[in-house]
Amino acid sequence: MDKKLKIGITCYPSLGGSGVVATELGKLLAEQGHQVHFIANSIPFRLGTFQKNIFYHEVEVNDYYVFRYPPYDLSLATKMAQVAKSQQLDLLHVHYAVPHAVCAFLAKQMVGDGLKVVTTLHGTDITVLAQDESLKDLIRLAINESDAVTAVSQDLIRETVELLDIQRPIDLTYNFIDKRIYYPRDAASLRRDFATPDEKILMHISNFRPVKRTQDVVEVFRQVQEQVPAKLLFVGEGPDLPKMQWKINDLGLNDKVHFLGKQDDIAQVISMADVLMLPSEKESFGLVALEAMACGVPTIGSQAGGIPELVLHGKTGYLSAIGDTQSMAENTIRLLTDDRLAAEFREACLQRAHHDFCNDAIRHEYEQIYYRVLGREVPNLKPVCG
């Protein structure tokens, strides 16, 4: 009996942690011989070049003139059903409850119960969208009608259960890194473009939304650079960029801060850093902290959401209360001025990232969930992590 699966994956294809995880998972599954079909309105940006067992199906929105707004959700549901029928998919794995899990529910109604649906909750579908009373019932329906539901942190599971009164079990399946991609790179030459040999580098990577508290990053840096020669690198773009630039200019820090814009090769970029700054107000997991950890870079962060499940305080980074920039600055200075401590943190980061969050282990967890909902025996393949 062929134990390989035919899996449809839908995610937001543009920049974002959920899209990254969904795409990387699909690639890992394809490497194991599973047939993976991405169903989205554009090719996921991390999909890259041609890869065996991976297929892409574009969702085209009907522009019929009576529609005031293009009905993307209905077009997606229809495409899911079409692909499921034509490719004989075993299941749909959708990332985000709205609209993807709702669309998968509709597709299943069209195809039949033989098509299974696995939904992964990533964060804002619960922490933001589920706060809207007009969407709560829809999100609850999508979760309850899925054959399996996973979430990327225990904190997200807690919030989902409490906010939506969910009674069904939710599997904890953490995000992961591909250890073949995320490891300490030689970034010495790149580092010289931004900092002198005696300067340390603080880095923040995000979409610069208010929830990321980028102003706190600037304030922490202001305190740190008064005691330690340092530079601050921002990676990404977003709505808070003008506010950040104004604050930096107001503090007279223009010559100490660099904006690198969006970058694809995060492992190379992040390897320049001595610490990653993640003072978020909400963070269901904190994928960027895991990517930094895998490159040997500790995190200075907040005790928000799932961050404490990832960053071990006093071992792989330091965590402070949200908005406590003084504590964050003190912890940063401690790391930047103690070479022995920094080396210990670096080794702890590498060990934790490559062992506890490695691609093989998390991929295997998802495979177990797939076979479970299909009522099939799980192949006895042990993941290799180290």
From TrEMBL:
InterPro entries in the record: Glyco_trans_1 (IPR001296), Glyco_trans_4-like_N (IPR028098), Thiol_BshA (IPR023881)
Domain Glycosyl transferase family: from-to ranges: 197-348
Residue ranges occupied by any Glycosyltransferase subfamily 4-like N-terminal domain in the UniProt entry: 16-178
Domain of life (superkingdom): Bacteria
Name of this protein: N-acetyl-alpha-D-glucosaminyl L-malate synthase BshA
Highest classification ranks of the organism: Bacteria, Bacillati, Bacillota, Bacilli, Bacillales
